[in-house]
Amino acid sequence: MTTTIQLLDATVFGKVGVLFGGRSAEREISLISGNGVLQALKSRGIDAHPFDPGTHSLADLAAQGFDRVFIALHGRYGEDGSLQGALEQLGIPYTGSGVMASSVGMDKITTKKLWLMEGVPTPKYATVDADTDLDALVAELGLPLIVKPPLEGSSIGITKVTDRDQLADAIALVASMDDAVLAEQFVTGREFTVAVLGQGAAARALPIVEIVAPEGKYDYQNKYFTDDTQYHCPAPLPDELTQQIQRHAVNAYRAIGCEGWGRVDVLVRESDMRPFLLEVNTSPGMTTHSLVPMAARAVGIGYEDLCVEILRSARLKMGNRGAKPEAKD
Questions:
Q1: Is 109 in the same domain as 216?
Q2: How many domains are there within the chain?
Q3: Which residue, of 25, 70, 213, 293, has the greatest Cβ tally within 10 A?
């Protein structure tokens, strides 16, 4: 795989835009991811240029004359299908999932509904609104439970509620970010993530990464800005459980129509080693702390080659009309 990528003629990609920054709460991380991708593509001789949708308009994007773009945006307005729809309208092939899969993957509640229909194991949940009986919620999900915004990423706005009296504040925090509030059963166990590359029947899972965060808190700070979190890749798991988790991750990825690349977060319950899938990221981080590059390295795919492989998959998804051809060997 690596040799094939290195032998590609970089000119086949044309003028490439790397989209990063944006307007979401994850802008800071996107800037780091995007700069990493930009330098990686340039190192392979690709005519890559930065573009920040947070400071430039779609008219500016159209005027750049990009032949394809690499989406390194995280969160709203970049990972939620809105930008993907604009790129379809502009006829610019792009990396990652299309409009529908991006939108569904960004919404944790809709994702859970689809996963449950497809038999993908995920923790019990409830959607909270002003009429929700909080005592009944606690009785259903138990304590502790997790309250999170369904449309945010990078652990933003998540509260672990250990006491009934904490619920109102946790819900108010999420309500300040999203119209909906997601409450989820807390699963005690080990934390893992599975990177997936490809599309449809060709989608494949990379080695599993285990995340061991200080005091079990894999929050925004411990994800991106400390060296205290430990990562084990491949994760030390029995072969049978490894294969089971990877199958679940690929099924979850396919269930919402993901393509190109993604990352599925998983908890394995301590009491019975049963896996539960939490969410799918359709535009994962590409920083030095990010987990998709880590998983790729475990099978001999370097950071630069990973970026090139993802870029090769850039295409229009809406019937592929007017799409520019994919790079060929």
A1: yes
A2: 3
A3: 70
d(CA 165, CA 34): 41
Active site residue 154: yes
Among the options 154, 191, 259, 309, which is catalytic?
154
* pLDDT tens, position by position, 97-148: 999 999 999 999 999 999 999 999 999 999 999 899 999 999 999 999 999 9
- Catalytic, 57? Answer no
Does 171 have pLDDT greater than 60?
A: yes
CA dihedral 180, 185, 187, 193 (to 10 degrees): -30
Q: What is the pLDDT of residues 44-103, one digit of tens each?
A: 999 999 999 999 999 999 999 999 999 999 988 999 999 999 999 999 999 999 999 999
Q: Could you confirm whether 33 is annotated as catalytic?
A: no
Residue type, 157: G
Within this chain, do residues 208 and 297 fall inside the same structural domain, yes or no?
A: yes
Residue with tokens 């969410």: 279
| Consecutive H or E run containing 148 | strand 145-148
* CA distance linking residue 303 with residue 72, whole number of Å: 14
What tokens appear for 135 in the block? 């005592």
For residue 141, what is the domain's CATH number? 3.30.1490.20
DSSP-H helix ranges across the chain: 2-6, 27-43, 58-63, 82-90, 99-106, 108-117, 134-141, 167-175, 220-224, 239-255, 291-297, 303-312
Contact 198, 292 (CB under 8 A): no
- Which domain covers residue 269, as residue numbers? 104-121+188-303
Mean pLDDT, the chain, whole residue set: 91
Quick one: pLDDT at residue 156? 80
Which of 24, 26, 210, 283 is flagged as catalytic?
26
Q: Do 213 and 172 have their domain in common?
A: no
265 is in an annotated binding site: yes
Say if residue 225 is in the same domain as residue 115.
Answer: yes
Instruction: Locate 86 and state its tokens.
Output: 């604009």
Identify the residue with better confidence: 75 or 324.
75
The reply, when asked if residue 279 is annotated as ligand binding, is: yes
Per DSSP, the residues of 5-21 read HHTS-GGGG-EEEEE--
